[in-house]
Automatic annotation (TrEMBL):
InterPro entries found in the cross-reference section: Dihydroneopterin_aldolase, FolB_dom, GTP-CH-I_C/QueF
Name the record gives this protein: 7,8-dihydroneopterin aldolase
Described function: Catalyzes the conversion of 7,8-dihydroneopterin to 6-hydroxymethyl-7,8-dihydropterin.
Species of the source: Lentibacillus halophilus
Gene behind the chain: folB
Keywords from the named record: Folate biosynthesis, Lyase
Domain Dihydroneopterin aldolase/epimerase as annotated: residue spans: 4-117
Gene3D superfamilies per UniProt: 3.30.1130.10
Pfam families noted in UniProt: FolB
Reactions it catalyzes: 7,8-dihydroneopterin = 6-hydroxymethyl-7,8-dihydropterin + glycolaldehyde
Domain of life of the native organism: Bacteria
EC assignment: 4.1.2.25
Family membership: Belongs to the DHNA family.
Length: 121
């Protein structure tokens, strides 16, 4: 399937299980693969036949900078749901949300949750 990729989107938000995360906040990085046929927009060169990258970013920003959630898994599910709600051509999406420097014991560069969802017909 064809894809539009939005890579390395950065958001400052207040998600997490620990109170410090909810109070201080931290950076989150989101990568998204939006799967749908690019044939029609590729032939027409018309934005109305595609998914606007800026609009997709705003949908994801609304979730990421919105209501705090405990789990990356919940964030990813909500992002996917909002993308399907917003863009009827979207057939499937892969969402990866990365949290750098998680406040858990040990040494980590980051932790992440990645989901792949297909549109329910």
């Amino acid at each position: 399937m064809d894809k539009i990729l939005l890579n390395g989107m950065e958001f400052y938000a207040y998600h997490g299980v620990f109170q410090e995360e909810k109070t201080l906040g931290q950076r989150f990085y989101v990568d998204a693969e939006l799967e749908f046929s690019l044939k029609k927009p590729g032939q027409s060169d018309d934005m109305n036949d595609s998914i606007d990258y800026g609009e997709a970013y705003e949908v994801m920003r609304g979730v990421m900078e919105g209501r705090p959630m405990n789990l990356l898994e919940s964030l990813a599910e909500t992002v996917a749901s909002e993308l399907f709600r917003s863009f009827s051509p979207l057939n499937a999406c892969r969402i990866r949300i990365t949290k750098t420097d998680p406040p858990i014991p040990g040494h980590y560069r980051s932790v992440a949750a990645e989901i792949f969802r297909e549109r329910d017909e």
